[in-house]
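Q: I'm teaching a short session on how sequence maps to structure, and I want students to see two examples side by side rather than one. Could you give me a first protein with its sequence written out and its structure tokens following it? Keep the formatting plain so it prints cleanly on a handout.
A: Of course. Example one:
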Amino acid sequence: MKVLITGATGFLGEYLVKEFSQAGYQLVAFGRNKEKGQLLEVDSFIQGDFSDFKQIEAAAEGCEIVIHAGALSTVWGDWKDFESANVLGTENVLKACLKNEVRRLVFVSSPSIYTSKKDHLDISESFELQDKPLNYYIRSKIQAEALVKSYQSQLETVILRPRGLFGIGDNSIIPRLLAANSTRGIPLIRSGQNKVDITYVENVAQAALLSTTRAEAVGETFNITNGEPMSFKEILESLLKKIEIEPHYINLSLSKAYAAASLLEFIYKTLRLKGEPALTRYTAATLGTSQTLNIDKARAKLGYIPAVTIEEGLDIYANWWKENH
């Protein structure tokens, strides 16, 4: 079976390539990073951008399955960039699937769409989404999911919402926390006792593979986590202890952190400053509220059982970090 993986040179993409390669699929990897792409063990690598319909249409030729994991994933930026990559780009992938008679599309979305200033525990996939998303990335993912669902009568679709990916190659969550720890300190809101879910990246790749074979998965949306909710501070201090780094914190209240983030966002937007604010509303809400996901549906319909625990995943990351730093 021939499978196309978009975003193949990204953090999750490289693990998807490994998972599907080990399962014996014929792989077409599609991504922007030519240097990384040429190192992937795939049948063919295509350097491209799925915001260009002709490129993604050509890449999907002859494929039975498409895993759409590519996205612009960041907490800050211009709407036109998120719209181009995550909304119009997803629409291009959908159209390319129809043009090439692809059987099934697995779309990697994000549970960031659940994020708000309030605590939410054991969130199911039917959770009512916020009317005013905290950032453009969330807005783009909500719109992209709606597009995928609109194609369900013409194409088998599966939507995955993996929460807080970590592992070797992560260039977002852990690196940002370590950078903050070595400079101004990690923002610790509500003493870090808020409950959160994270997911070892190999488990997400496993869920994607299951999504290609299960008939029960068609037309469904699945939360994907490790299924081990913990306090933010518990996870953080476990990691720092394993890599032998002393934690440094800035203690903040959620209300003050959110107010400061709102002011910073206003200043950046008004003055059109480059880069991103040191703190955003999304980051404040993520660090300061409890958000855990219910994965019962993934267990029942995908047969999803996380293969790597959080403890094991942190050990793997810590050993790699100590060897490379």
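Q: Perfect. Now a second example for contrast.
A: Example two:
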Amino acid sequence: MHNKLCVITGANSGIGFETAKELAKQGAFIVMVCRNEDKAEAARDEIIAEIPGSGLDIVLCDFSSQDDIRKAAKTIGDRYEKIDILINNHGFVAKTYNETVEGLEETFGVNHIGYFLFTNLLLLKVKAAGNARIINVASEAHRNGEFDPDNLQLKRGYSTWKAYANSKLFNILFTNELAIRLEGSGVTANSLHPGVINSNFGSNSTIWVRIFWKIAGPFMKSNRDGAETTIYLATSDKVEGVNGAYFKNSKVATPTKTARDEAAASRLWAISEELCGLT
């Protein structure tokens, strides 16, 4: 990983922070893409204190805003010639139905469109590395998701966990379609389940989710353990050339039939392009 450029979203806390710290320890230069500047700077200072001489940059981005995503991608594109590893790690669970400034359901906008638009805007820089990897953090929660192209944003029948499960299903479908489009480029795209993590992830959600997180916390993985599969996909020679796979506990796993539906993946891509104004 020496001198490889790694872009990691949501890098100031949870498994994103642990991933950034470990890759920095292995000699990578890390671009931490974070929403909150104070938290990002505190995380960077903590990594530097533990690993003196680490190369760390901060780029601010609120993934609920497509304008912010475009600005962050442009900043990274202007600063760096290539990206060796792109890790889409940020995640969100809404308390109630809410819409982004673009009028998208918020969980869909942050978790899916955030991955989709950010990746597409940086794709030329990733391809410039020649032999690069795109890693998308999904979840086993996708097993409770469904693909309904007429109700992707749950304007009918919304619930907090349905929105989250759908977004994780869309992460896998996006990864699979991206992998097909990347064939022959030298770039690979894979998704993963990090495990159920004892973090502050559920702190923004409903009271029942927060209560569950508090009770179940002692039985969940630590952030460091949860980062293992992401780190494995970023660093291991064993996954060289592996493209379009879904990983769990650093091994290839089989997602749901819907998550493996090529027609659904292609349809989701086309809808997402339209929502982002990409051609």
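Q: What should students look for in example two?
A: Point them to this: The beta strands are 5-9, 29-34, 55-60, 85-88, 133-137, 188-193, 246-248, 251-253. Also worth mentioning: The CA atoms of residues 33 and 72 lie 8 Å apart.
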